Amino acid sequence: MEELIHRFMEGLRATTLPEGIAVLTGIASVYFSRSANILVYPFGVISTAIYVYISFAGGLYAEGGLNVYYVVMNIIGWYMWLQKDTTGEKVLKITVSNRRDWQQQLLFFGGMWLLLYEILARFTNSTVPVEDALASAAAYTGMLLMNRKKVENWLWWSITNIVSIPLYFIKGYVFTSVQFMVFLTLAISGWITWYRTWKREKEMA
Fold first, then answer.
1. Which residue windows are transmembrane per the record (predicted)?
2. In the list 14, 102, 120, 136, which could disulfide-bond 129, CB 3.0-4.6 Å?
3. Which domain holds residue 149?
4. Residue 202 — pLDDT band, cuts 50, 70, 90?
């Protein structure tokens, strides 16, 4: 336990300015996504762009590729969430996944996990290909669903956060592992908030 605490404190002291900025803007992004606020996207672009560099530098190649995907999807999601119909109402509403949605997202997740694992195991020197691929595949799925305002995006983010906490810790990015602890708490809160919003809007329809 003392060794773990020692590594934690050493990791915090070794936190670089880019990592600090990435963590703080990342937390801000998830905080705004919890309330379905459009500011989730500009903060998300800043954080994920920095993490492209951090992930590749730390040998987390699937996470690095994931953050490239994040940057692109943040820009796409920003556009999607801004769309309004002829009455001025936002086109996208918070909804829950039906059976077909679940089938599609599970197929997408499984396919991404297998693909990323094969790439990491065959073509990189990754020491954690299973875990790296798992965290990234869940995050790919979560981002896709968040852009569509599906409540279940929070489930996939929770999986990503649970796997990423030890993943980044063992790579020496302790401040980032703390970020994922905060993310996990926000993801649980986000699930509750989005579900209540969907239920309220459904009852009012």
1. 12-32, 38-54, 66-82, 154-170, 176-195
2. 120
3. 2-84+93-204
4. confident
